[in-house]
Design goal:
It contains 10 helices and 10 strands. It is of the alpha/beta class. The chain is globular and about 45 Å long. A hairpin with a 2-residue loop joins strand 4 and strand 5 (67-68). It has helices at residues 44-51, 74-79, 97-104, 116-125, 127-131, 142-153, 172-187, 199-205, 223-227, 230-237, and strands at 4-15, 18-29, 33-38, 57-64, 67-68, 82-85, 160-164, 191-195, 208-213, 216-222. The chain is 35% helix and 28% strand. Helix 3 (97-104) packs parallel to helix 6 (142-153). Bound molecules: adenosine-5'-triphosphate and magnesium ion.
Length: 241
């Protein structure tokens, strides 16, 4: 396995009085796409929020590119080149698609300042972003909103993309579109950590897999191996295959 860009060691997270993460050990290899799977309530979103500093680990260490970022604030973490798309997508419904993109671009103050070649690439990946450029983002369909959310995350070059359940509630045709876009993003060299419930989505894109249950990682390995083991999937995810 290649070197880990992101590494969680024995991470515990408390939310108020609740102990949610019970010692998460997770490695995200550089240049690969890692799928974080697990049943509802397993702790996947809490893990992503803890990485992003939206919750703080009460115990354990989070390292990014060898650096200890456990106590970093969310803006400091974003400054390291880590982009995060939450389950709720984080889109501003009253603002236009363009304004949403501009807000996500840390180095651009005006639309003209955004990297044109990069925007063209994004428009090719997600044509709806160009089509609805001057429309309020709230008018987009669920799938188009998800594409805008991912576009915002890649509006500038990033080291690591962290995306929570991008396929949620989307029709199969849109999911295929997203799979193609993620495959291209992966080919561009960016490291990706994706939470997924859709096992087919996960199998088609994942290089590495980690499965959570009850606030812990209960399996980690290659996706090829995991995909070939229906019994393991059944045991860990309760999938009737
Ligand atoms: N703000 C909160 N306050 C209290 N408990 C919370 C909070 N957020 C999450 N939890 C609890 O933490 C546990 C893990 O939740 P989390 O959202 O991380 O799961 P998940 O794996 O992302 O689930 P899903 O697949 O449904 O999105 C759940 O039992 C949930 O009820
Ligand atoms: Mg979740």
């Amino acid at each position: 396995m290649s070197e880990a860009l992101l590494k969680l060691e024995d991470v515990h997270t408390h939310i108020g009085a609740y102990h949610i993460l019970h010692g998460v050990d997770l490695q995200v290899p550089k240049g690969q796409l890692t799928m974080l799977l697990g049943r509802n309530g397993a702790g996947k979103s809490t893990t992503l929020r803890t990485i992003m500093g939206l919750w703080h680990a009460s115990q354990g260490r989070i390292r990014f590119a060898g650096r200890d970022i456990t106590a970093f604030s969310t803006p400091q973490i974003a400054d390291l080149g880590i982009a995060y798309v939450p389950e709720t997508m984080g889109i501003f419904a009253d603002l236009t698609v363009k304004e949403n993109m501009l807000l996500a671009a840390r180095s651009a103050k005006r639309a003209q300042d955004m990297d044109e070649a990069r925007l063209k690439w994004i428009f090719r990946l997600f044509p709806a972003v160009e089509k609805f450029w001057n429309h309020p983002a709230g008018k987009l369909s669920g799938g188009q909103k998800q594409m805008l959310a991912v576009s915002r995350a890649i509006v500038e070059p990033r080291e690591l993309l962290i995306i929570d359940e991008p396929s949620k509630g989307l029709a199969p045709a849109i999911i295929n579109n997203l799979i193609d876009a993620f495959a291209e993003l992966k080919a561009s060299g960016v490291t990706i950590l994706l939470v997924e419930q859709n096992i087919h989505f996960a199998q088609r894109l994942g290089d590495t897999v980690a499965v959570m249950d009850n606030g812990r990682i209960v399996h980690a390995g290659s996706m090829a191996e995991f995909s070939a083991d229906a019994q393991l999937q059944q045991r860990l995810l309760g999938l009737a295959l």
